[in-house]
Design goal:
Length: 95
């Protein structure tokens, strides 16, 4: 007997959606939907004549740009840590 996944109901920019979500991720996904609504509201106030689809696409692109920048920063931080660990390792080796 399989356990069914919980269903999360969210409203995004005035439309209701229901998604099956993995157990324990309902709160996180609700918070993401809330964040998306905030971004859409800000963009809508800046561009009130834009269509719903334009606002959704622009918000998606802006969010993906933010994600890409964070991924680049994370990769740079990982390279820096790796370099530091190599330096420390080199200094700890007996002569």
């Amino acid at each position: 007997m399989s356990v069914s996944q919980p269903v999360l109901a969210v409203t995004v920019f005035g439309r209701d959606y229901q998604f099956k979500v993995p157990q324990g991720q309902q709160t996180q996904l609700q918070q993401l939907a809330d964040s998306l609504n905030e971004k859409l509201s800000v963009l809508h106030s800046q561009s009130p004549l834009s269509s719903r689809d334009q606002l959704l696409v622009l918000t998606t692109l802006n969010t993906l740009l933010e994600l890409s920048q964070l991924q680049q920063q994370s990769a740079q931080a990982q390279r820096s840590i790796s370099n530091l660990l190599q330096q420390i390792s080199g200094q700890l080796k007996p002569a």
